[in-house]
Amino acid sequence: MFDYGGDPAHTGPRHLRVRGGTALTGSIDVKTSKNAGVALLCASLLNRGPTVLRRVARIEEVNRILRVLGSMGVAYEWLGPDGDLRLQPPERLDLTRIDADAARRTRSIIMFLGPLLHDYPEFELPFAGGCELGDRTVEPHLTALRRFGLSVERSQGSYRATVKEHVERPGTIVLTERGDTVTANAIMAAARFPDVTVIRNASCNYQVQDLCWYIEKLGVRIDGVGTTTLTVYGRAEIDTTVDYAPAEDPIEAWSLVSAAIVTESEITVRRTPIEFVEIELALAEEMGLAYSRSDEYLAANGRTRLVDLTVHPSPLRAAADKIHPMPFPGLNIDNLPFFAVIASCAKGGTMIHDWVYENRAIYLTELNRLGAKVRLLDPHRLQVEGPVQWTGAEVVCPPALRPAVVLLLAMLRAQGTSELRHVDVIHRGYEQLAQRLQLLGAEIEPF
Ligand SMILES: CC(=O)N[C@H]1[C@@H](OP(=O)(O)OP(=O)(O)OC[C@H]2O[C@@H](n3ccc(=O)[nH]c3=O)[C@H](O)[C@@H]2O)O[C@H](CO)[C@@H](O)[C@@H]1O
Ligand SMILES: C=C(OP(=O)(O)O)C(=O)O
Q1: CA 348 to centroid of ligand 2, rounded, Å
Q2: In the chain, where does the domain assigned CATH 3.65.10.10 lie?
């Protein structure tokens, strides 16, 4: 087991030394999702009563939002070692004391706008940050929330929000983008607006579904969960005791499946939320991947369908067409980077088109340090040739979560010893990833 120098607040090691070429074996459980975790932390502000969230992933992104909540006066405590978390907002939040450093490290802070506009006519929030993936607009959030009376001015690194006292009922809101966090914000604004609000072009992705089910437990009816039209029957006041368990993370699940594919291993990824990786799986199957799956069972939220997925070592061929992501249901935007390393193991050339982020594809060219043949055609498109001979190298993590993990997976395959430096970026979204891979037989040593 790893020793992080006795610092319990440290979510993981600084650097990793990886001896590649070892096949992995065994089974691994998928943790609950980062993205539902942070949405639910923000949503707990809708409720005057206590919220218990079950098996929340112990990751840096969650810690950052907790630090922000704590700085505003929310009391929280971890209930034992399994990630159960209890939150209790104070009578009034102290928004003047907000932990700006923690807030600026995460984009999820933007999801405070929806809950806060109900009780706070004026407040400031630090600019949303996070991974350096290029510009990530907040305009769709502001456009949607304007209908609930919110207006925002940008000033000295902060959003200055003011909320009109009397607003006409929003009625139907059409989101200008089918984004996950903008949908979350619109839902949280509608949840306490005492009328019926219809949200069109809503994301129906996994974290939005978890958020809706949590809000239903708060006593707010939502029709259309899992579709792109949500009808929210808001309530002006919510004061209840609620206990909710978010579902497993499809991105972690696909990261682990990718680890098996890249290392040509047979491992079982237990608790895979199958509905949210089935396109990734269908595509990999077309590339030659063999896998088997258990019967379906339900996640602790009683809704999300899970399977245990066993990946078998398989010779892969390049995908016939370009690989690109879409809002759900589509190949998940955060799972796209894993196809760069998968395509590098496949025979032939694959084009990967990340239309979403300006910077994320660029980071994937770092795979070339380990022997990959990844060519950047333009900031959004990569041409990947395979199969390649992976060789160990020393690489510094790019400032982006998924590309950093993709490099780690390639190192697990690369002959010789590699060093992955400054892996803090990985702790933002994965709980003890290196240790858990070590339990599958990966030769990883922290330093
Ligand atoms: C906390 C959370 O849930 N984060 C996820 C969420 O972030 P989030 O919902 O914040 O994603 P953004 O709003 O930044 O959207 C990502 C990018 O896609 C563009 N865009 C998005 C939707 C659309 O219909 N059209 C469009 O052009 C946006 O302009 C932006 O450039 O969604 C992202 C895209 O799936 C994921 O990478 C994040 O992990
Ligand atoms: C880009 C991501 O998330 P976030 O919205 O937290 O930056 C991600 O999870 O890869």
Answers
A1: 30
A2: 16-31+248-446, 34-244
Asked whether 38 lines ligand 1 (CB < 6 A), one says: yes
Distance 207 CA to ligand 1 centre (A): 12
Task: Locate the ligand 1 atom nearest the alpha carbon of residue 137 and give its number.
Answer: 29
User: Which residues are CB-contacts of 163 (< 8 A; sequence separation ≥ 6)?
Assistant: 117, 120, 121, 122, 148, 149, 150, 151
Q: Is 36 in the pocket of ligand 2 (CB under 6 A)?
A: no
Cα dihedral 148→45→130→70 (10° resolution):
140
* Class in CATH terms, 34-244: alpha beta
Alpha carbon of 180 to ligand 2 centroid (Å): 11
Q: Confirm or reject: Cβ of 402 under 6 Å from ligand 2.
A: yes
- 272 Cα–ligand 2 center, Å: 19
User: How do residues 180-225 score in pLDDT, each as one tens digit?
Assistant: 999 999 999 999 999 999 999 999 999 999 999 999 999 999 999 9
Angstrom distance (rounded) from CA 185 to CA 280: 28
Mean per-residue pLDDT for 303-322? 97
Helices (H) and strands (E) in the chain, counts: 14, 24
Q: How far is the CA of 251 from the centre of ligand 2 (A)?
A: 10
| ipTM greater than 0.90 | yes
pLDDT above 90 as % of the chain: 91
Asked if residues 228 and 199 have their Cβ atoms less than 8 Å apart, the reply is: no
Q: What is the pLDDT of residues 78-109, one digit of tens each?
A: 999 999 999 999 999 999 999 999 998 899 99
Q: Which residues have C-beta within 8 Å of that of residue 441, sequence separation ≥ 6? A: 22, 23, 24, 25, 26
Give the ligand whose atoms come closest to the C-alpha of residue 61. Answer: 2
d(C-alpha 229, C-alpha 197), whole Å: 10
Residue-wise pLDDT tens digits, 275-311: 999 999 999 999 999 999 999 999 999 999 999 999 9
6's CB contacts (< 8 A; 6+ apart) are none
Task: Tell me how far apart the alpha carbons of residues 264 and 269 are, in angstroms, rounded to a whole number.
Answer: 14
Residue 364: pLDDT band (50, 70, 90) is: very high
For ligand 1, is residue 179 a contact (CB within 6 Å)?
yes
Task: State which fold the 16-31+248-446 domain adopts.
Answer: UDP-n-acetylglucosamine1-carboxyvinyl-transferase; Chain (3.65.10)
Compute, in angstroms, the gap from residue 180 CA to the centroid of ligand 1.
6
> Closest-lying ligand to the alpha carbon of 136?
1
Give the number of the ligand closest to the Cα of residue 182: 1
